[in-house]
Amino acid sequence: MAVLTAAKSLLGVSSSVGGKPLKRCSGFWIDWDEESKTGTVLTTAHLIRTKEAPTNIWSGGEEYDPHANVTVHLLDGTSAEGQLLYHQPHYDVAFVRVRVDKPVQLPSFNEEVKLVQDVFRLGRDNMLDLRITYGRAVSENPDTCQRYHDMCFHCAGVPNNEEKYDGGGPVIDLEGKVVGMSNVRCTRTFIPSSILLKCLDLWKKYEYKYIPRPHLGMTFEAIKLLEPAHVDKIWRMYNIDNGLVVQKVSKGSHAEKFGIQIGDIIECCNGESVSTTVKLENMLMSICKGSSDNLNGLNVEVNVSVEVFHTLKKLRTVGELAADVSDHGEVIIA
């Protein structure tokens, strides 16, 4: 059975600070080194989060303790001390190294998750019992507690308080391949595999030090995911039925200086049409992945070619938008 095969790579992970329990979640193997007898676990950065954002995820305020004690709960019932290698707040991922004498089973990935695809969300509770939740992968415009690379997991009849252990666990397809990782920040969302795989590639590219990301200073909603009446209105007014509608522009950002305002429509990035925020995020990550620069410790800017329709002026412009590169969670200043 696909679920049981995938479950062999699924672990429990917990953290503590000053001897006091902090978080308990799930994680799964992504690497094992035979020479050093160590394995690497991918999990959620929620593992070491000590403070949640006070208002919404884009306002900032989250805090993490990179010195928290991490314990990996192995499938044979034993526990081992883990070493936190790195955490990336924006993508909500963390990597933990742990010594394990025997080879571990690594999961297979499916690089693409399809809309309305049948999937299973897996997790392990505090007794290491396997938790299996059936649902479907759905694209929706993000709310204030979601980053715009998140996808939604639609399921029925599961109370939110029973999902707390699933964060960091894999979301798999019916063949048992990983199509995402469950997100704790916002219930019933997950990070799609296309983003996870790029995170892994970038972490390796930049010598396991950081995962860079260009910050555009804006939030968006995809036209195709709006209510049909709203989509029709945009088409009637501007003859546009695809792209991203700007919801917020950060004060003092490059986007504001570019002249982008709330309600404007981003039609293309780097010459490619952008139909969803997940597609935009993949494009942004590809910019860093394709860069030959070491990003000088992240203190650089990259240029993103954008095609913008300014709705108030009913004017279309194409230009180079500067974006600050960082591995912190992006904050939008009102």
Automatic annotation (TrEMBL):
It comes from the Eukaryota. This is PDZ domain-containing protein. Residues 241-285 form the PDZ domain. PANTHER family: OS09G0436400 PROTEIN, OS09G0436700 PROTEIN. InterPro entries: PDZ (IPR001478), PDZ_sf (IPR036034), Peptidase_S1_PA (IPR009003). The lineage of its organism: Eukaryota, Viridiplantae, Streptophyta, Embryophyta, Tracheophyta. The gene is LOC100845435. Gene3D superfamilies: 2.30.42.10, 2.40.10.120.
